[in-house]
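Students often ask why we bother encoding 3D structure as a string. The short answer is that it lets us treat folding as translation between two languages. Here is a chain of 686 residues written in the first language.
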Amino acid sequence: MSIKEDGHLPPLPAPERTFPGKGVQWQVKPVSVLVRSKDADKPGYLSTWPAHASSQTVQQKYPLSGLNRHHGCSDEFGGRATKPRFLEQLQSYLKRELTALDTLSPKLQERKLQVYQEVFDSLIEEFTTYKPLLSTIKNEYDITLAYLQEQIRELKPLRSQLVLLSEQCDKKVLELRKNERAEIRALKQERQHFQQVIEGMREQQRALETQVYHLQEELAAQYLQYRDECDARKLLIAKISSMSYNTEEEPDGDYNEVQSEDPVTVKLALKVCREDLTRAQVELNRLHAEYGEVVPHRDWENLDHMYKENLLQLETLQSDFNQMKSEYDILLDEHRKVSLQKDNLQRELDVFQKASTPRPHWEQCADVLGGRERWSEIFEGQSSKKRLEVLLEELNSMGMEQKDFFPGMGTSSNVPIYLRYEGQLKNLRLNKADIVRIIKDIWREKAFEDEKRENSSDLKEFLHQYMQRQYGGQAGEWIYSLMHCINCNLKDDFISLFYDILTDKVHESLYHSQTQMLSHLLKVLVQSDSTESGLFTASEFSEALRKAFPLKGDQDLEELVAAAQSELETSEGSIAYQRLYTEDTDGKHGHFLGIVKRQATTERHQYINQLRTQLEGKEEVSVEDLTSAFKKIDPTLDSESLKRYLQIAFHTKDPHLHPELLITEVPIQRLSVANVCRAGLMPHPE
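And here it is in the second language, the structure alphabet:
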């Protein structure tokens, strides 16, 4: 192939392509756009359009900017070259075909796309070098368009269904509104009827009130008339009586005056008075005979009420007296035993004091610990070993409490809500006893609030509300001092558990399960104490423990019995179980209850390990898989406990609506920090 003098290649041979028009067949001969650049070193260089032919350029006054370089043109070429003939033919064909389309046709977009496809096919056929790449691109676009059209065809019935459903809903709404209007109209009519009835009753009431008023006036008039007649009758009787008396005393002086009165009238009045007197005397005798020994009903009710109250007080006092008597007997027996033990200990102490070395002078620590009052508060009633432990803890805390102020962590959202304070907060230098007291009060208040709300609140939010309610403006100083002192005493199980729950390391149900377990144990021990002496032998104590913990083995029960005997320092004697629940000044339980908690933790870990073994080999688990695993390792597990375990594992209120699969270790980890315990014995392998 030769190159012309102007640098252009001769046109490449290509078949003529025919484009459909309106009754006219257009033939377009492809025009080659291969040009020979004057600056190209190799022949056959393919230049981009517009070509930089010197004969078709118009020099501009200023050089091209970086925009030209961005489009692939060099700064040494200026102006704008004319379009190739083939490009002009394609553009004219495209414009003509688009103009010829019917804009009102429903398939206008498809026909426009067909025109563009034909033009693009012509380009692919002409550029044989890029034909495979362009064909691949075109095929991908065709496949995508076909897929989208298929999706549109599938969605069209849904659109019609949606329109139909919308129409049905509109009809239902209109029917409901129509029915409601009819009901409202009926209710309005009924209301009007009731208003009329009420108005009529009010008129009737007013008429009755008027009648009652008139009747009251008439009754008052009749009553006045009766009173007048009664008074006149009494005056007449009195006058007759006085006249009779005067007649008997002065018969001679008043003879003429008596003769002047009508004797018939006087006799009649005397007869009437005697009849009234007789009738009154009879009635008085009858009343005296019938009601002489009768008590009024009002007095009888008062006496009956007083009798019931006194009887209830007597029963209460009797029950209290019986309880106090039993407690007094127990205390008397306990005092006798303690006295014997005290005498023995005193004798042993005397022997030890003679044979032992002098005791250390703990009073010398008073100045180090902040005064004699502080020393007596910490060391009062403690053994030497306990005093040494307390002294080391106080020295350690004093070393860590050199700061007088704590810097606030700010109020951003990533700071826990109970620590959102700013500025310098004073260190209140709380001791361990203060921490235990505050934590116990927090748990007690939270239990009361949860009982009223019927659901459990978050410990972080409740701690913030508790500090605001208890200490007001000093809440920041108290919470920072409390958290600092908690970090200094994390070796204590009670404080460490509170800190782990507060920092979401373990679930809050662990604390409640421990509290319920210790309460249940004490309740079983009290019920097993049939003699109410507060003492058990070793065998009786073991049976009571077996009743409280039926799933424990003999080895665990023996360990608990040995721990109780060791704590009470009674190897073969009686076990005073109530003393096992005593706390020291720091609120810490004894060795026995510590073993109970440790065994419960070990049993919970074993239960979780059995569940992990049951799910071994599964990378992901569902609700059904976890339910089946629980049923296999614990067949007696009730449905309520199983639902609670599934809620903890999948973090949902309704686990059966949780279709997603979780990695096996995720629910296992969630259950390992919650209150999960065995409900029945482990099934024996077949």
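Translate back mentally: Residues 131-249 form the longest helix (119 residues). Keep this in mind for the problem set.
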